[in-house]
Amino acid sequence: MLELDILKFDRSDLLYTACYCEENIYMLCSEILKKRPELLDDFSVMFISNDHRSVPLWQQRAGRGEEHVVLWDYHVVLYYKQNSEALIYDFDTLLPFPSPADFYALETFKPNMLVKDEYKHMFRLIPAKLYLDHFESDRSHMLNERGEYMATPPQYPAILKKGKHNLDNYISMKQDAPQDIFGRVMTSDDFYESIFH
C-alpha cells in the first residue's frame, strides 16, 4: 500500500489562485510530475458540473450558511485511486487535504439528498498526464463585458501550448466529447458506485 504521507501536501506550499480551480489542479499535477512522476498514473483530474452548469457543493470555503454550500458552474479537484484506496484533493474545501474519497463525496455532494435534475452532479475524469499534455486556457471565461477580470488571475502566464483555449471541452458533460483527450464522463450514480463499493 502507498504511504499516505507521500501524498499529503501542505496547501500553503502549493500554487493557488481563488476562482481558478482548473489551473490550481494543473499546477498540482505538475508538482506531482516533478516530485513523484511514477505516481502520476494513479491520478485523474475531475471536473464536476452538469448540462445546466449549476452544481451545489457543500463544505466549500466560498460557501454560505452552517454547511458552507455554494452553487458552482463547475469545480475541479484531483482524484487519486489505487486499488481500494481513493483520495480527493480540493483546494477550496474546508475538509482535510486530501480527504478519503467516500468521506469527501458524502460531505461535498450529499449523494443521499434529493435534488432537482438541474442540480445533479456529473463528473468528467481525465488522466492527469493527459490533462498536463492537453489542457489550455486563455482565461477568457473570467473576463466581464468590459474585458476586466472578475477575479484576479494567477501571476504566472496563461497555460497555452498551441494557443487553443479548450476549457469548455472539459466542463462539458456531453458523453460524445472526444474521449481520447478529454477523459470520460460519469453520472453521479456511476461515480458513487465506484467509490462506495
TrEMBL record:
Transmembrane segments: none annotated. InterPro entries: N_Gln_amidohydro_ab_roll_sf, NTAQ1, Prot_N_Gln_amidohydro_ab_roll. Its EC number is 3.5.1.122. It is an enzyme of class 3 (hydrolase). One of its GO terms (molecular function) is protein-N-terminal glutamine amidohydrolase activity. Mediates the side-chain deamidation of N-terminal glutamine residues to glutamate, an important step in N-end rule pathway of protein degradation. Conversion of the resulting N-terminal glutamine to glutamate renders the protein susceptible to arginylation, polyubiquitination and degradation as specified by the N-end rule. Does not act on substrates with internal or C-terminal glutamine and does not act on non-glutamine residues in any position. This is Protein N-terminal glutamine amidohydrolase. It comes from Mucor lusitanicus CBS 277.49. The lineage of its organism: Eukaryota, Fungi, Fungi incertae sedis, Mucoromycota, Mucoromycotina.
